Amino acid sequence: MQTDPIPKVIIDSDYTTLGDDGQLGAMACQLEAEGTIDLLGITVVSGNHWLRQGVADALKSVERLGMAARVGVYAGANLPLSRNLATIQKERQHYPGGDGYLGAWASAQPGSDRDLIAPPDGFAVHANVQSRSAVDFIVDSVRQYPGQVTILAVGPLTNLALAARQHPQIASLIRQIIYMGGAIDVPGNTTATAEFNWWFDPQAAQEVLRLPTRHVVIPLDATDTVKMDKRVYDRVAHDPNKQTIVTRLFRQLNGYVSDGNDGFEINPDYTTSIWDTLTLAYLVDPTFATETVQRWIDVDSSFGADDGRSVGYREPRPGLQPATVVKRFDNSRFYDFYVDLLTRPVPVKEA
């Protein structure tokens, strides 16, 4: 019986130590080690942090997991295609709303590595950023494996937009792009109308979503319904038989408040959405998605209250591509998948 080939995967991410991006990296490395996916590399873009910080976090991640020799880290775009701080500040002044999360824009760009913040377990010692740029790596990989590369696009889409601008022919060679981004039929998060990843570089999102390839979008519509509560949190953080550096960092960096004794404890009422890791689950098994719809998605890139807003049309529109939009997930099955991969031994063990 013929089986499907192992999917070749690029993670394009605004990487963090062990937020949802770092969790995705850890989980993907576990699947790489067991042979479920072929993780070609991690490309980094500014978003949650400026590029230099994201690269440092990604390098430490692959080193921590024992995967630095197998999974390269590639530096991409530091600035969005057409956005600046003055415009953002003006928009926030005149059009308040949302949670106001600005990601990298909330801090000055690091001038050198001395300005970076080390992960709790320190900077990478042995892992080094690859010499090829993220854009070149994406283009080269898609050309090398036509029709085989899935891109998990879980940050701003600047790297992908630049790759397609420079080499338009690669779009038809991409197997699929699975996004965590957008808010189709629900409010935004960063603003009242816009989800953060696509808001950070709306011009890039607009361009990439129009590429002639297969698009799968996991927007806030779905992620708002997949919440990590204390029960899920404890399964990752407090299983006494599955303690690793990943579970310790998870415990330290996700949802903690001080207990007043130089320790930390989670607020029992704490919940947070689970975002980027849903893309990996969908890649491995699309039946994790229990409700999907087809939409033709556009992104507003004009100044104003709707800057970065994503609109999902129910009928074809000129210039737009059809996308599979995930609305609901099988939460119980997903949590088992999520907890298992985050609590496996570290460094990663071969299957």
UniProtKB/TrEMBL annotation:
The keyword Hydrolase applies. Signal peptide: none annotated. Keywords: Glycosidase, Hydrolase. SUPFAM superfamilies: Nucleoside hydrolase. Pfam families: IU_nuc_hydro. Residues 9-336 form the Inosine/uridine-preferring nucleoside hydrolase domain. The keyword Hydrolase applies. One of its GO terms (molecular function) is hydrolase activity. This is Nucleoside hydrolase. It comes from Paraburkholderia edwinii.
